[in-house]
């Protein structure tokens, strides 16, 4: 088996498609072809990806700057783009520790390079699957102190986890281990914002993913809320990614006017919950 096949470059991968939506360079022909198929039926995928990334930046800033959290646990890291989570965290908490987790070999290769860019004692990478919560928690404990608050990020990850693997149970197991004051940062694709008379919908995007052997699960608002059971939702609650604390945006000079981005362009619920 050649390296091209071994690394999966001959077939589309959701993380590399996401990198393409964000304007990155770590994607291959199969990824670009699959992404083009999605964009034909859901042009909002470009906006959705960028708004999702912005939500991650703002939630990380909220955790570090407003709550003083100094530990970050990012599961489903994906291809690193700048500013990366650790860069945002270190901007407000220079001694913050960050653990990245993913199970894609190309992501692993790029994250190994990323580790050399930051303080080695402050950044760690776990090659594991979110469906193995016990393994992830055990290995993360080598870097993070779970007796202190941790910001756990599951951003645009769970819609790639089959319902048969019970994503709600996985999230409950992970948050159970967190200390009081910890955060759950989570976003998930939804068809709740699809316009009834439009052919450009998240539902259509999901079918395009399925044609490439990938999945894009969707949740209702009620199902999204269930991920935060036992947690206290931070204001403004469950909202489209573009509407979660835009005042915290890191982009210099950005002005977000009401209605500038409509929920159907985003197609993703977002929320941040604090463990009481």
Protein model, in words:
It is a single chain. With 276 residues, the protein is of the alpha/beta class. It has one domain (3-250, 257-274): 3-Layer(aba) Sandwich (Rossmann fold). 38% of the residues lie in helices and 14% in strands. It contains 11 helices and 8 strands. Strands 1, 2, 3, 4, 5, 6, 7 and 8 form an 8-stranded mixed sheet that branches. α3 (29-41) packs antiparallel against α9 and α4 packs parallel to α5 (85-92). The longest helix is centred in the first third of the chain and has 22 residues, at 45-66. The radius of gyration is 18 Å and the shape is globular. The model is unreliable at 1-6 (pLDDT under 50).
Entry summary:
The chain is of the alpha/beta class. 38% of the residues lie in helices and 14% in strands.
- The proportion of strand residues reads 5-15%
Q: If helices are DSSP runs of H or I spanning 4 or more residues, what is the number of helices?
A: 11
Low-confidence stretches: 1-6
Q: What is the rounded distance between the termini? A: 50 Å
Structural class: alpha/beta
Architecture per CATH nomenclature, i.e. the level-2 architecture: 3-Layer(aba) Sandwich
Tell me about the largest β-sheet: 8 strands, mixed
Under CATH, the topology is which? Rossmann fold
- Helix content class: 25-40%
Principal-axis shape equals: globular
Tally of DSSP β-strands: 8
Fourth-tier CATH superfamily name: Vaccinia Virus protein VP39
What's the quaternary structure here?
A: single chain
Order of helices and strands: HHHHEHEHEHEHEHHEEHE
Question: What's the Cα radius of gyration?
Answer: 18 Å
CATH level 1 name? Alpha Beta
Mean pLDDT reading: 90
- In total, the number of domains comes to 1
